Amino acid sequence: MKDLDLGPWTHDHVFGQDQRRSGEARTIRVIVLAALMMVLEIGAGIVFGSMALLADGLHMASHTAALGISVFAYVYARKHARDERFSFGTGKVNSLGGFTGAILLAVFALLMVFESVHRLFAPVAIAYDQAIAVAVIGLAVNAVSALMLGGGGDGEAHSHGHSHTHSHSHSHSDSHDHDHVGGKDLNLRAAYLHVIADALTSVLAIFALLVAKYLGLVWMDPVMGVVGAVLVSRWSIGLLKSTSEVLLDHQVPEAKLDHIRETIERETESRVADLHVWQIGPDHFAAELKVVARNPAPPDRYKHYVSAGLKVVHVSCEVHGMDTES
Question: Whole-model pTM?
Answer without folding.
Answer: 0.69
